What we know:
Elements: H1 3-21, E1 27-30, H2 54-64, H3 69-76, H4 81-86, E2 93-96, E3 100-104, E4 116-129, E5 135-150, E6 156-158, E7 165-168, H5 169-175, E8 176-185, E9 191-199, H6 206-216, E10 226-227, E11 235-236, E12 241-242, E13 248-253, H7 260-274, E14 282-286, E15 289-290, E16 297-298, E17 319-322, E18 325-328, H8 338-341, E19 347-352, E20 358-365, E21 368-375, E22 381-387, E23 394-396, E24 406-411, E25 415-421, E26 427-432, H9 435-438, E27 443-448, E28 454-459, E29 462-470, E30 475-482, E31 491-498, E32 501-506, E33 513-517, E34 524-525, E35 537-539, E36 546-550, E37 553-557, E38 565-566, E39 576-578
Parallel strand pairs: 2-7, 13-14
Antiparallel strand pairs: 1-3, 2-4, 3-4, 4-5, 5-6, 8-9, 8-10, 11-13, 12-13, 14-15, 14-16, 17-18, 17-39, 19-20, 20-21, 21-22, 23-24, 24-25, 25-26, 27-28, 28-29, 29-30, 31-32, 32-33, 33-34, 35-36, 36-37, 37-38
InterPro entries: GerMN, LpqB_C, LpqB_N
Protein name: LpqB family beta-propeller domain-containing protein
Domain GerMN: 207-295
Amino acid sequence: MKLLPRLFALLACLVLAAxxxxxxxxxxPVAVPQQELGQPVNPDVPQPAKDLDALTVVRDFVRASxxxxxxxxxxxxxxxxxxxxxxxxGKVITIIDDVFATVPASGADTTANxxxxxxVLRGTGLGTLREDGAFISLRTPxxxxxxxxxxSDGQWRITNPPPNLVMPYSDFTANYVRVQAFFFAQxxxxxxxxxxxxxxxxxxxxxxxxVGLLLAGPSASLAGAVRNLLPEDANTEGNVTTxxxxxxxxxxxxxxxxxxxxxxLIAAQIVLSLQSVTTNRVRLLSDGAPLVDxxxxxVPSDLPSYTALASPSADQPGLVTVxxxxxxxxxxxxxxxxxxxxxxxxxxxxxxxxxxxxxxxVEYADGRQRLRVGQFGREAAAVDLAxxxxxxxxxxxxxxxxxxxxxxxxxxxxxxxxxxxxxxxxWVPQVVNADEILQVGPISVLRLSRDGARAAVxxxxxxxxxxxxxxxxxxxxxxxxxxxxxxxxxxxxxxxxSQDTLVAATTMPSQPVVKIPIDGLRLDPFNISNLxxxxxxxxxxxxxxxxxxxxxxxxxxxxxxxxWRPHPHSFGxxxxxxxxx
Length: 581
């Protein structure tokens, strides 16, 4: 009687082995299980599960490709011996949606060899991670054809791995860490975040990888729009390590000849950039001595604010344009001066400078629209600029004493213009090169980031981010990137929630309000409860509630998932709110 259970067990094993040896007709698209993600990478690099079919080998190989430790050792386990030794994947990574399929090839791509299978992976690419660690959003179909061969031990292994890594989104976010590498605005000491991704393992080298990003300079899309205070010949003398007392030691070389002020700014760059990967004190050394005399160890609270120029002060509640006049979002009252009292301008749109002292308006005049700029509450000077349409103005901050900055708008959807203040107080328009953006479509919205380094643009109903590159002779909107193209459309308005995050209003019933990082890696829809679609305007700022306008009035929320609450002053259905900037 004892023999019978053993016989059943043996038969079960044989059936399982036979089933695993066969190649299924198709692997249906499935979502990567969330509970499998976020596990620490095993430094011992375990072997693949035994007796996987060819389709599963390809699926597991793609997921294992997200583990960069030990030269992608986890992914190499799914390759045959020759391919495993020869594979040198490039530095560009393609990130695909979690739902993808692996199917046997058909037609001419099939093979008559029973020990070989051509497997086709089909998925949706979300974008690429470039060599500099910056993600570029680009939604496009992805198809890989991989030859899988049965080895002498009966296991299926890939013989022709792809030239670049391909990995699902959830596996990417489980193994890579998003960091903000900080640089400085072109003409002020305002820090500008550059979103980058570095391998999360091994943990001991994470801080060093972030410092390496700073030494290499800004990402390609932000080059020319920011300053890196670390000189080109700066480097680290050995590795970034943890001292016995717990401080993170960054041993710099090549910075000793910098002025004391520049060395303080370098300290700010490094300490702010490291705050997302360590809570340790940061010990900054230059050729073995403190980078800043008398200040060896740093924590973020040691630094002054380097975003004061990029964030409206608490005493600026914001404004709203309604029925041709400008009112306060704080108490609902009409503002002083001709823009609010109705005796002066018929206001189409407006923008308040970040310090609150200046107001730019687009007014209706003689059947056209015209730009005016002046001190808040006073008469505004007319700019020699008019068109059938003009986008709502947007301010670029400067570090000048009067904070006047520049005012930008787009005329007739085609001409981006910045108005500059002259010594006599007038404003002179100059054209901005926006050729790359205009290839996407006419521009209906343009919002400069409050640090002045980027612009969020709605062109042809799509949301883009571009860098503002300034030379002595020109200003260019360079390297525009469409965010969530193919997923996000019908965009009607956008604003900067923070230096690296946007909120947008769309005509899409399923996601009328969304939050999106400036690299477009993810898209978070807001709750739609209480909104009366469509939403036609939106405003946001650091530390402020988001305000949207629909046909019923104004609504506020602090983040996604929150139910929209009525604004204390609704103003009716044609209101257009805006915070300074």
